[in-house]
Write a structure and sequence with these properties.
258 residues; 7-stranded parallel sheet; two-stranded antiparallel sheet; binds NADP nicotinamide-adenine-dinucleotide phosphate
Length: 258
Amino acid sequence: MNKRIAIITGASGGIGKEFLKVMLQEELDEIWAIARSQEKLIALNKALGDKVIVIPKDLSKSAELLSIGELLKNQKPVIAYLVNNAGLARMGSYEDFTVEEIESTINVNCSALAILCTLCIPYMVKGSRILNISSASSFQPLPYLNLYAATKVFERAYSRSLNVELKGTGITSTAVCPSWVDTGLLIKEFNGKRIKFPGIVAPDRVAKKALKDAKRGRDMSVCTLYVKCLHILAKLYPQRMVMNTWVHKVKKYVEKVH
Ligand SMILES: NC(=O)c1ccc[n+]([C@@H]2O[C@H](COP(=O)([O-])OP(=O)(O)OC[C@H]3O[C@@H](n4cnc5c(N)ncnc54)[C@H](OP(=O)(O)O)[C@@H]3O)[C@@H](O)[C@H]2O)c1
């Protein structure tokens, strides 16, 4: 019989590692854990057990990404869950980003997500769930977090449209939109001072709520009341005003605010 699996990208740390833990409670034969760091993935396999299958891949590289399609062709699993969680983020002015950094951010945050959906859906069945980890950054443009926020807009829009296209198949796609989450993605100190992140939550809370919402077939998962308020405010207020408020708050952390 074909094995029933979950695929989690960015599984080596942060929110992805928590998804790995919650998936262990599901009826699955294997959980394919994808990230660049083989060392961290092996440590997770040792800590969490042999259901965790170590698949080291750099998703910014087309050949490595497409090799996941080859694995699927060879093994023909039933994919119960696909969690597109791997992501890159950095704050800064547009001038601070190299061409390579722009390319790899878009490759990991956008291209890999869409390509993995396309590669995985043929192996999904009624009840299979896709979770695309977007962000509250997708609610409006964010100067100085511009590249990241723009990729998160892509992720949310792609995921929600995909959910409509999947209607009638029993497969759903959920855009997960947390605000600040306490992971290694966030720089916690600036000039020796601890940075305060309003509404920050632990990564396990995001993963648990996202899985619950995905099982209910929701096209968006918003973890806390704080994020719900951000979502409503971004709809009610003119975007220029929201952007100005954001710039006012973050300018002390960015050297080249014009
Ligand atoms: N933390 C937040 O405040 C926050 C808020 C909203 C949304 N999110 C989103 O949540 C997701 C997870 O973020 P996180 O906070 O858990 O970040 P994190 O702790 O930095 O984890 C990012 C994961 O992505 C993997 N990754 C990075 N580049 C990769 C590449 N080229 N190929 C394969 N894997 C790669 C990393 O593993 P390796 O380094 O081993 O490759 C790591 O496992 C991201 O999509 C992020 O945008 C985060």
